[in-house]
Predict the structure.
Amino acid sequence: MEGDQKLTSQCSISETRKHVTRTDLTICSYLCKRETRMDTDPGILCFQHCSAQVFCFELPELCPVCNSHLATAHFRLMPFRVPYPFVRAVQHPCSIVIKPTTGDFLHDYLNSMDLHIGVTNSLGDVVEFDKGGLQQHRAGLWGQCLVVDKASGPWREHWDTILKSVSDQDCWSSQRYNEETFNCYTFVLTFLCNLRYEKLSKAATNRTMFCETFIVPRTTAAGKYISLYRKLNDTGCYIQRHPSPLPKR
C-alpha cells in the first residue's frame, strides 16, 4: 500500500499562516474528532506547523518536527481530520459494497486478500451470496466497508425489483456455491447485468473489467488510509516530509 504518497489534496500547504492559542487547539482537536465520527473511525488528524505535515490521533503539546510549542505556533496548515473512507452498509441503500472476507480493513486487510461483495436494497439491508447460500439481514458484519457505487434516487424502486427477481432464482444455494467459479461476485454481477444501470452494468459483463474499473480505485485509496493508521498505531505520530525542490539550471 502506498502510505508514503500524499493522502489528499487537502494536505497542500496553505499560503496563509494562522496563529492559534492552546484553547483553540483543544477546541479544534475536539471538533475534528467529533465531526461525523463513526464507531470504527480512529479520527486521524493532520496539521503542518513548520517543514513537514504531521499525522496523529491527538494534537501534541510540541511540534514533533521542530519542538516548538503549538500553543503559540503559526500554522501553515490548520489541524483537520483526515477523511475516513469506510462506511456502514446500512447507511448506504441501493449500493454495491465490499469488505474483507475475514476480519476488517483497518486491522486485517492485505492487498493479497480476497474481498467479499454484496448489494444493499433501498432499506440498507445487505443481500450477499456465500458458502451458506443467499444471506440477508447481517448488518453487523458490514460496519466497515467500502461503497463501490450506488444508484440515484429515481432508480431505487427498479433496484429493489431487480434485486428481488435475481435473489428469487433457485441457483443461489449453498450446494451451488464454488469459491472460484460461482461466488459472491457471480451474484452481484448477475444482478448488475439485469439492472442495466449505465457504466456499472456495462462493466459487470466482465469480472476483470469490473474490478479494474470499480474495485481497484476504491481499495487503492483506502489502502493509503490503512497504511497511515497502522503507522500511527506503531509510532503514535507520522511525519511526512516534502522533498526539497530540484535546483534550477
Residues 242 and 248 are 18 Å apart (CA to CA).
